[in-house]
Amino acid sequence: MARTPLDLDELVEHWTLLKDEQGLVSGKRGATRLGFAVVLKFYTQYGRCPRNRAELPGEAVEFVARQVQVPASELDLYDWTGRTVEYLRA
C-alpha cells in the first residue's frame, strides 16, 4: 500500500530538530550527521529506530538534510549495520 506524502505541517511537527537535538547532531559530519538526525527523529515519532533507509519518508530526509546542512544523497552512504546504528538501537 502506498504511503501518503507528508505535508509541511507534518514535517515541521515531527521532523524539526529541537535545540537539544541539534546539539547532539552538531558533533557529527556528513552521512553520519544526517543518518543520526533522521534516526533520532524517527525514534521520537515511532519509539524505535528504522531498520533501513526504506522506512524513512523521502520528504522527511530532505527536510532534515536541509536542517543539518548535509545533502540528502549522503544518506546513501550511511552504514545501517555499523556500530553507530547498533549503539542507537541498544
UniProtKB/TrEMBL annotation:
The lineage of its organism: Bacteria, Bacillati, Actinomycetota, Actinomycetes, Kitasatosporales. It comes from Streptomyces tsukubensis (strain DSM 42081 / NBRC 108919 / NRRL 18488 / 9993). It holds the Pfam family DUF4158. This is DUF4158 domain-containing protein. It comes from the Bacteria. Residues 7-85 form the DUF4158 domain.
